[in-house]
Amino acid sequence: MTGTLARVDPRPIGMFDSGFGGLTVARAVIDLLPGENLVYVGDTGRYPYGSKPLAEVRDHAREITSWLVAEHDVKLVIVACNTASAAALGELQADVDVPVVGVIEPGASSLVSATRTGRIGVIGTVGTVGSGAYQEAVAAVDATVELTCAACPGFVEFVERGDTTSDQVHVLAERLLAPLVDAKIDALLLGCTHYPFLARTISDVLGPDVVLVSSADETAFSVRAMLDASGSSRVAPLSGAPRGATHRWFSSGDVDWFRELGRRLLGPEIDTVEPVTWPASGGGDV
Ligand code: DGL
Question: Is this prediction's pTM over 0.90?
Answer without folding.
Answer: yes
